[in-house]
Amino acid sequence: MDKDYFQLLEQLRTGVITELPIEASEFVEFQAIFHAYEYRKRIKGQAMRGGQIIYRMVAE
Q1: CB-side neighbour CA atoms (13 Å) of 13
Q2: What Cα–Cα distance (Å) separates residue 40 from each residue in 31, 44, 47, 49?
Q3: Strand-by-strand arrangement of the 43-47 sheet
Q4: Of 57, 28, 27, 55, whose CA–CA distance to 42 is shortest?
C-alpha cells in the first residue's frame, strides 16, 4: 500500500505526529509531494545512517 505523504505531512504540521521517517527507497516519491507542500519551509529533515531521513517541524 502506498503512503499518503500529503496526509502524513499534514499530520506532522498539526502535531498529530512529531516526526515523519522516510526510507531511502521512498525518497523520490516523497520528495515530489514535499516540494509542492505549502508548509515545507517549516519542516526540516535530518539524515540518518542507512539513508533514512527524519522530518520534524521547526520550532517557531
Answers
A1: 14
A2: 11, 8, 16, 23
A3: 20-22, 53-57, 43-47
A4: 57
pLDDT greater than 60 at residue 1: no
Domain residue spans in the chain?
5-57
3-state secondary structure 12-56: HHHCCCCCEEECHHHHHHHHHHHHHCCCHHHEEEEECHHHCEEEE
Q: Which three cell numbers stand for residue 1?
A: 500500500
Q: What are phi and psi of 20, to 5 degrees?
A: -130, 100
Residues 37-46 have pLDDT tens digits of 999 999 999 9
Task: Indicate the residue type of 43.
Answer: I
